[in-house]
Amino acid sequence: MSITRDEAKAELQNLYDNLWLDRGTRVVFLDFTVYNANINLFCQIKLTVEFPASGGAVASKSFATVKLIR
User: How many whole angstroms separate alpha carbon 58 and alpha carbon 48?
Assistant: First the structure.
């Protein structure tokens, strides 16, 4: 996602326009891993947004840090 709210909103609208998201979407997962070479650590990030049938959005996050390289 973008840094500014307007850019993020435009990206979400693009997902709706290209049928990646619609009223039937119940959950969106965003998983990625980053590496910090200065401290030799990987961090796995999982961001989740659930859209219950009753409406609204429920966001959650998970972070796991691990040292894999000696």
Answer: 8
On whether the pTM is more than 0.85, the answer is no
4 pLDDT band (50/70/90 cuts)?
A: confident
Q: What are phi and psi of 30, to 5 degrees?
A: -130, 110
Strand order in the sheet with 27-36: 27-36, 41-50, 58-66
What is the average pLDDT across 15-29?
Answer: 91
Any idea which fold 24-70 has?
N-terminal domain of TfIIb (2.20.25)
Domain edges within the chain = 24-70
Confidence check: pLDDT of 69 > 90: no
